[in-house]
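User: Second chain of the day. Same drill as before.
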Amino acid sequence: AVSGSGGDSAAGSRGRRPWALLAGAAAVVVLAVTAVEVRPPGEDGRKDTAATPPSTAASSTPSAGPTARGHLDRQKTDGDDASGAPRGNGKGEPDKERKAKGAASGSPTPSATKGPDHGGSTRAPLTLSTRSHVWENGCGHRYVIDRPPSEVAPPPTEQDAPTWAAAHGAVHGGTTNVEVTVQGRASSAVVLQALHVRVVGRRTPLAWSSFAMDNGCGGSLTPRAFSVNLDASRPLARPTDGNDAGKPIPAVSFPYRVSASDPEVLLVNARTAGCDCSWYLELDWTSGGTSGTLRIDDHGSPFRTSSVKGRPQYAYDYADGAWYKSD
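Assistant: Same format as last time:
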């Protein structure tokens, strides 16, 4: 089902800048959406397999960034329940497709579009740029890693996090922030109708240690677009008010419009306290007589977030040049 609460449209001219620079905007568009949990055979809709974690060599190079792909005429699975989710062994073997990918940005693949009156297909009238290593205030984040502290390198900067995480076989700990910049290809408006959260795997949280990236960080809260509780049986991407340098930024509901000159930045804050969850997003859009759905994921595989509850917690001491236990 598609949630379209609020007839208010956030259409119109707004200065479109990267989400971190939205402080000057009068408001941040926040979308009211619905989500369901789907149950394909495997976590990415393909055959269920597991593989050995990726190489942890420091020279590992991440592949291209998260992807946004078009899917048309998808079956409606909004009635699916969360029961019967696949369970893992808690040892953290990642999926075959995952392989610790995670570049900071990447070019989405073209997406197909169908109109109601013809059977042809063409690319979607949207472009999306996605980042999944987005930290609170540029420094607040946690990763879970299957290594002793002595074998974990010092925290990277946010822009170097994809390479660092890939080299360590790291998984987002507790929270994953996914930033999606949506822009039309032409001057004509494209209406974004709904955003769905698809949880395709729930396993026992990884029995790994948690490493903090935020030692010594601070600052005001960053504006948020969506808040997702992955522990819910039917997770919803809920609109949340933002805060930029102490200035409240109210949420705005679907639908709203984007074009080539009027982009928007969506920020999804997904969190868990009780699972090792795999999930992705779907963005519904319409333009004139055409419509479609864009899948937003991590290089063709679901995003992955594992709880840090009860796990050993480590922070980095820059004076000593070593990790120390912080819990």
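Helices lie at 161-168.

User: Great, on to the next one.
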